[in-house]
Amino acid sequence: MNYTGDAPRRAMPEVDRQAASRAAVAARQARAVVKQRLRSGELSPIRAMSNAQQAGTPEASLRVTEFLQTFPAIGETKTVRLLDELGISPRKRLGGLGVLQRERLEQFVRDRVGATGAGQTPALTVLAGPTAVGKGTVAAYVREHFPAISHSISVTTRPPRPGEIDGVHYYFTDDEGFDRLLAADELLEWATVHNTHRYGTPRGPVRDAAQRGEHMLLEIDLQGARQVRASMPDARLVFLAPPSWEELVRRLIGRGTETEDERARRLDTAKVELAAADEFDEVIINDEIPLAAARLVELILAPKGVA
Ligand code: 5GP
């Protein structure tokens, strides 16, 4: 702002300064209460946004950054990305949003917690994570011990391994078969994994399970998880992480059969894959398989935003 030409600004009298500072402290405390109520689920984010329309409410002066960080699994890095996607400056307060910004933020909130604001249980949960973290083992444990959860059976161009049964572990097909599924738009997501074979999730069973009110688990790679996020924002994305970097290295190269180059390449890939954890709604540490599986099932069955 340009003050040129204005009357010289007088210093604020001491008593006014004290009153202003008391008011600022009170406002900060009121915002802290709002954040606490948002975190506990007592105040729905949609209601908070609607309160913010009223000038003078603590919600109106809450920064969008702080608002977003009351959601589970939204940290600083994710907030920066979200604000960028929503076209909102990090300094903006909830009460100071433009109409379009408010609409975009509200849409994001509805997608995340469900239209009621109270949270709905998503029909679909995606389990992804770095290579060698043990996704397949955790998913197999869930399949064996928690029969109420449905599992998607992927289509792949990889040949069956000994003991693998067509229609149970995968639907095995060739390149032409996979191309036909793609052309008919029958895959919800697909990816070429490890630069070799193609894998994809058939749409039909996912749709049918949702219609029957079942909870379905998809164990897929990161590229596939990103596609699901884009096409089904209501799906829950769970990242399976190793207990430590050293442990992942051990699981990745433990067999010691790879060349030095191959090992370096795998470790580079693992670093990139680990960095993707921030894109997910939830992170589970795969320390002990039964515990990781139980936590996963707990998440699958919980309303989104409150697990
Ligand atoms: P594998 O060949 O060892 O059974 O699986 C290799 C990788 O393919 C695993 O990381 C697994 O998560 C991924 N994968 C299996 N099915 C699918 C799928 O339908 N879509 C995607 N994107 N990845 C899959």
Task: Provide a compact summary of the structure.
This protein has 12 helices and 9 strands. The chain is an alpha/beta fold and 307 residues long. It starts with 13 loop residues before the first helix and ends in a 6-residue tail after the last helix.
Protein described:
The protein has helices at about 15-40, 45-50, 65-70, 75-85, 100-115, 135-145, 175-185, 205-210, 220-230, 245-255, 260-275, 290-300; strands at about 125-130, 150, 155, 170, 185-195, 195-200, 215-220, 235-240, 280-285. α6 crosses α12 (about 290-300) and α10 (about 245-255) crosses α11. Helices cover about 45% and strands about 10% of the residues. A hairpin with a 3-residue loop joins β5 and β6 (about 195-200). Guanosine-5'-monophosphate binds near residues 190, 193 and 219.
Number of strands: 9
Bound compounds? guanosine-5'-monophosphate
Derived from helix and strand composition plus strand pairing, the structural class reads: alpha/beta
Instruction: Note the gap between the termini.
Output: 46 Å
Main β sheet profile: 5 strands, parallel
Radius of gyration: 24 Å
Beta-sheet strand percentage? 5-15%
Helical stretch tally: 12
Q: What fraction, in percent, of the residue positions are helical?
A: 40-55%
**What is the string of SSEs from the N terminus onward?**
HHHHHEHEEEHEEHEHEHHEH
Instruction: Summarize model confidence as the mean pLDDT.
Output: 88
The coarse silhouette is: elongated
